[in-house]
């Protein structure tokens, strides 16, 4: 309604004056409304919310929720390890490596006893609870805060066939009188490696806790020099070592066994009885077997010589 | 006197470094037998604190009793030889203790004291002993105690960082420990050979300011 205004027209001047004052107020109201809308709509954060953030002696931990997906994140900035679970579909493998670890069941289909070192959010025990109810699972976790948060945010509850022990993994294996068909190692942060669980002596200890035909399944990252040293160490301890490389991630699974019941070339044939564990397709994971893996020359890690924390930062 | 002071500085730096290097390495020695938990670190640090405290008081006492540096040097030779033997002592001790004591807190505390009490206590005697010696020979100012501790703690800083950042990645733990023992032994023998006591006794103390 801007129209030219004769400066001497009192009515016109009054109108302009009212508009100026009211206009400022109007602009302020519109601005406030837009700001409020932006804050409420939260366009950057979407629905992701930090449910918890805190420190234990061992870890800095964050729990984040994004819709139905809850994640436990370890470390800050440079350390990006996380474990996530879809609370509506808890057995869904949100990461490649958690599905890959189940290749252990191809090597040893009649598994009755499993030990798992490293609890995280409890995804792996949840899969066991839902789809492997006859298998005994002992989970070992060093950080009491991880256990507490798994219970609180991931509804982690061990079944009568499962136990959870809060103790150092190597100590547990040293003192236990139990023997296992499979021992799964998933204890490593990308930031800090517990070096006493990467050595030849440790792997010899795990081997001594296996039943006949038992296998060790270790999760690793093939993107740094520590992986090559870990493979070398496995090869120094186990008669047979198998590597499975992730297709979508830098994860690789190392399997060690002195006399496995089945070998990868035979997996397609022998896995008739069970090819799926929940949504995990074992034959698809078996397809990640690397028959001739590209492993660099590396020293075997021992209790006496173990530069694991140095090697983990040397990217390929 | 330049030789005396450089040798004393060398002793302060090397034994300051040795003590902290051993503390860093202690976790590698302990964790195969007792795990890698916070308990182990508690045991390592608190054990060294015990050894330091006993060493401090013994160092002061021995200096007062003998008024000479050679008793300290003889003890440092014993400490160096003990350190050279640690690679043999620690696996036996670790295995023996961890099998008999179930609680890793007490187990690691016992093992730490068996392995480290003698050498670390002796090495902790160095700073108070040298401060005491300087005061006996009237070469002390208000700054002296601070300077001695500064030098030895800088040595500790070097020992800590060089070990944690470099040595552990380059050499086996047993080699590093033996290397520490050998270096300490050589410096202690050298100090004994140059006759520090005579040199300190012969040259008069600085004249007091008018």
Overall description:
The complex is a heterodimer of chains A (316) and B (210). Chain A has 2 domains: 1-42; 89-311, 3-Layer(aba) Sandwich (Rossmann fold), CATH 3.40.50. Chain A is 32% helix and 25% strand. Chain A contains 11 helices and 14 strands. In chain A, strands 7-6-5-8-9-11-10-14 form an 8-stranded mixed sheet, sandwiched between helices. Chain A has a 4-stranded antiparallel sheet with strand order 1-2-3-4, with helices on one face. Chain A starts with 9 loop residues before the first helix and ends in a 5-residue tail after the last helix. The model of chain A has no long low-confidence stretch (mean pLDDT 86). Chain B has 210 residues and is an all-alpha fold. Chain B has one domain (2-199): Growth Hormone, Chain: A, CATH 1.20.1250. In chain B, helix 1 (2-34) runs antiparallel to helix 4 (104-124), helix 2 packs parallel to helix 5 and helix 3 (70-100) packs antiparallel against helix 7 (173-193). The two termini of chain B are 23 Å apart. The A-B interface holds A 57-58, 142, 167-168, 170-171, 174-175, 194-197, 199, 201-202, 302-307, 310 and B 28, 31-32, 34-38, 98, 102, 104, 168-174.
